[in-house]
User: Fold this.
Amino acid sequence: MTGFAPDWLALREPYDRKARDETLLDRLAAWARAQDPSPLAPLVVADLGGGTGSTLRAVAPTLGVPQTWHILDHDPALVATGSALSLPPGVPSLEARWHQADLTGDLAASIPEVTALVTASALLDLVSADWLARLAALVQARGLAFYAALTYDGRQRWNPIDPFDADALDRFDRHQKGKKSFGPALGPDAPARLRLLLEGRGAYAEAPSDWRLGPDDRALQAAVLDGWAGAIEDAAPGDARGIQGWHAARLRHVEAGRSRLVVGHKDQLWLPG
Ligand SMILES: C[S@@+](CC[C@H](N)C(=O)[O-])C[C@H]1O[C@@H](n2cnc3c(N)ncnc32)[C@H](O)[C@@H]1O
Assistant:
């Protein structure tokens, strides 16, 4: 199982929220209002790989209509953490139902029949090309709206620069494309692959949702560095000294309050015809 610690998801949540593209959220909200949901017939949302519910907390208040969310994740610890958190305030008639579900199984059966909107955040770079094609086909066949946010797209820029940055990025991306719980992952190729699957078959839109971290964002930068150094070492065992030197130099910049980092993500929205 690919493990994501609740602490890591909590640390990134405010940055994710800030990075989400507002224009796509506004379009999604307009679509949601047009479905005319009511407390007796709320908009049903299925959030795939929902973790502790970051997407629910970011998106439900934006939609502002009566909603029932089904949050699906295979990790029981994340489901337990998320289901104990409060619902976001200010949404009329909001219900959240948590499910421990392995999405590599019967995907069609995992998404409740009455669903109108499928969401996924920070998930699609983990999935395989086959799985993404299955999901896109299912969304289109059932005429569901699809909001996929914060998918890593391979752009990373550290400042100050280090001669090892390009090498580190190359190795990191190789690790991102390694085997995850869904099989060989798309990693940074995921947004382009999803665009190919959806564009031209409904109303498709995409926008960047980059993290733009400044010198004060030390905790997230340090956590990103720790995660990446581990991933890079996994992808290219045998050059531990180069990686450790890069990691240590970058951490010194972070601790000294002079490090900046941009991580490229994409938000993508597909609305049925
Ligand atoms: C990067 S986290 C994102 C979590 C959440 N969407 C967020 O934005 O905070 C990826 C999530 O996918 C879940 N996941 C990974 N493989 C899965 C699978 N096969 N079935 C269901 N969930 C899975 C993980 O447990 C984790 O919660």
The domain at 6-154+181-212+265-271 is CATH 3.40.50.150 (Rossmann fold). Strands lie at 43-48, 67-73, 94-100, 117-121, 145-159, 179-180, 183-184, 203-208, 211-213, 260-271. The chain is about 45% helix and 25% strand.
